[in-house]
Design brief:
Layout lengths: L6 H5 L17 E4 L4 H17 L4 E6 L8 E7 L11 H9 L3 H15 L8 E6 L5 H14 L3 E7 L2 H13 L11 H15 L9 E4 L5 H8 L10 E4 L15 H7 L13 E5 L6 E6 L5 E4 L1 H19 L6 E5 L5 H11 L3 E3 L4 H8 L4 E5 L5 E5 L1 H9 L5 H16 L7 H15 L3 H5 L7 E6 L8 E3 L4 E4 L3 H9 L6 E6 L6 E6 L3 H15 L1
Parallel strand pairs: 2-4, 4-5, 6-7, 6-8, 11-12, 11-13
Antiparallel strand pairs: 1-3, 2-3, 8-9, 9-10, 13-14, 15-19, 16-17, 18-19
Helix pairs in contact: 2-3, 2-4, 2-5, 3-4, 7-14, 10-11, 10-14, 10-15, 17-18
The structure holds 2-acetamido-2-deoxy-1-O-phosphono-alpha-D-galactopyranose and zinc ion.
């Protein structure tokens, strides 16, 4: 159990390419896989220190690069309740990763130990998992070597989706408490979700088959396993892009990110009017739905549409149960379509908060509501129920059979939802719960509002750090004067909106624009992009 400070000087895995600089950002560490062996070793040390700091609470480590190309990889830490690593520790992660010799690494470890008053003799427990990338087995070994030198009790969970690992971490840390989250196993996850889903759709006819594009990633084998827990007459799924063995196929022309950014169906789909489709990303924490209308036009039902559907359904259920004193709210980012914000605010009349990009910001804001629905437009999100809300839902006594039915359904919905993090399988079940209860196809769902045409452009600039924003990234404060120039263009378009921010995951600046028509949107995006160069 002891942490061997002197041993890290000899076991350190140094950077492969001198001069590489690493940063723990919105997506943890993420870059080309061959640059990550040193980082994995240090993440092993970091996870052990974090666990020691929290008196041996179990910390998770997930090796994945999500929707990125197959040659990339990445790693992020999971805190005890299944949330992302506490923000104040991101800086420690970055410092450890950039220490490139034994002495400086030991020095950074000592700095962290002092700053956080960590007892190095305290126990440490870490669980880890990985996605389907060919680089994972090697990187797992590097992580294990960092865990071993730190004296952590390390348990490998093998191939998992990112949200499954978050679920497992929360289950382990809440076992035996009033707050127990479930069985800390893959099977426990499948059972919890399938049982809750069956209750949530009980008595309603099954919908047509849902085609699930798994982006040739880990979602495919896991979903294939999950369907064994559900009878065919409850949910019918057909997996496409489920090949995790052929090199080069992961996220290639398929998956949630491809569908969202290209606004087109993935490779391997033969989508026709009436068909129901959705896409997962490479680690199955994001989902988007889509269909083609009777004119053959492709229509996307993205994270904003999911948030609207979920908020609508949950608000009605809360009312049927008679607990509408609970405050429901929705959290979005600036990338949310203007029509969705308008629908939430003016039709559902639900409070909407806008926060900077990155799931941790959305998650924290959602915690401020009794029931907080949060989704990024790209399909990453979930619903959080506060402990008080859960307590109210679980203890209220029904006065009528209708109220009892609403209570049962709301309880089931809280179990269908993975409350630790966005989860493609769980979000898929939430959407299917709502559509089955309403007996809606994608067209009925899509009727809530019509998306404004929008365009997201990536602009490569000499130095993206000069772009500084305020107001949840919707306005630039630097470079000086640029925001005024953007405003002048925006003012010329009906329903015009545009903003510029530096990406947190790529060396580029993103320009977003929306306006009343496709051509005006493209024109606005172009004009603003030219200002940024
Ligand atoms: P950046 O690169 O900071 O725009 C992207 C996504 C985020 C989030 C992170 C983490 C967009 C516009 N941005 O962030 O929503 O998912 O990656 O993966 O989709
Ligand atoms: Zn992902």
């Amino acid at each position: 159990m002891t942490f061997d400070l002197s041993a890290i000087k000899s076991t350190i895995i140094p950077h492969k390419v001198e001069g590489t600089i690493y940063a723990y950002g919105t997506a943890g560490f993420r870059t080309k896989a061959h640059l990550l062996d040193s980082v994995m070793y240090k993440v092993g040390i970091l996870a052990a220190l974090r666990s020691k700091k929290l008196n041996g609470a179990t910390i998770g480590v997930m090796i994945t690069a999500s929707h990125n190309p197959e040659e990339d990889n990445g790693v992020k830490l999971v805190d005890p309740r299944g949330e992302m690593l506490e923000q104040s520790w991101e800086n420690y992660a970055t410092k450890l990763a950039n220490a490139n010799d034994g002495d400086s690494l030991a020095e950074v470890v000592e700095q962290i130990v002092t700053a956080q008053e960590i007892n190095l003799d305290a126990p440490a427990a870490v669980v880890y998992a990985h996605d389907t990338r060919p680089s994972c087995p090697e990187l797992v070994k590097c992580l294990e070597s960092g865990l071993s030198v730190s004296g952590a009790k390390a348990t490998g969970y093998g191939l998992k989706t990112t949200p499954m690992l978050h679920y497992i971490v929360r289950c382990i840390n809440t076992a035996g408490t009033n707050d127990a989250y479930g069985e800390p196993t893959e099977e426990g996850y499948y059972k919890k979700l399938s049982e809750a889903f069956m209750t949530a759709v009980a008595g309603k006819p099954r919908l047509s088959t849902l085609h699930v594009d798994c982006g040739n990633g880990v979602g495919a084998p896991k979903l294939a396993e999950f369907v064994k827990y559900l009878p065919e007459d409850v949910l019918s799924l057909k997996i496409i892009n489920g090949d995790i063995h052929t090199e080069g196929k992961l996220n290639k022309d398929c998956g949630a990110d491809y569908v969202k950014t290209r606004q087109q169906a993935p490779l391997g789909s033969e989508i026709a009017p009436g068909d129901r489709y959705c896409s997962f990303d490479g680690d199955a924490d994001r989902i988007v739905f889509y269909y083609v209308d009777s004119n053959g036009v492709f229509k996307l039902l993205d994270g904003d549409k999911i948030a609207g559907l979920a908020a609508m359904f949950i608000m009605e259920l809360v009312q049927d149960v008679g607990i509408d004193t609970l405050k429901v709210g929705v959290v979005q980012t600036a990338y949310a379509n203007g029509s969705s914000t308008n629908y939430l605010t003016n039709v559902l009349k639900v409070p909407v908060s806008c926060v900077p990009t990155g799931v941790k910001h959305l998650h924290h804001e959602a915690e401020k509501y009794d029931i907080g629905v949060y989704f990024e437009a790209n399909g990453h999100g979930t619903v959080l129920f506060s402990p008080e809300a859960l307590n109210t839902i679980n203890t209220i006594e029904a006065k009528t059979p209708a109220q009892q039915q609403a209570i049962n359904q709301l309880k089931a919905v809280t179990d269908v939802i993975n409350q630790t993090v966005g989860d493609a399988i769980s979000d898929m079940l939430l959407v299917e719960t709502i559509l089955t209860n309403r007996q809606w196809g994608p067209e009925e769902w899509d009727q809530a509002y019509t998306d404004l045409p929008n365009r997201l452009v990536k602009v490569v600039v000499a130095d993206r750090t000069i772009f500084k924003t305020t107001n949840a990234e919707r306005e630039l404060v630097e470079p000086e004067g640029l925001q005024e120039q953007i405003n002048e263009h925006v003012a010329k378009y009906s329903h015009g909106r545009s903003f510029v921010r530096a990406s947190g995951t790529e060396d580029a600046v993103r320009v977003y624009a929306e306006a009343a028509t496709r051509s005006e949107t493209d024109e606005l995006a172009n004009k603003v992009s030219l200002l940024v160069y």
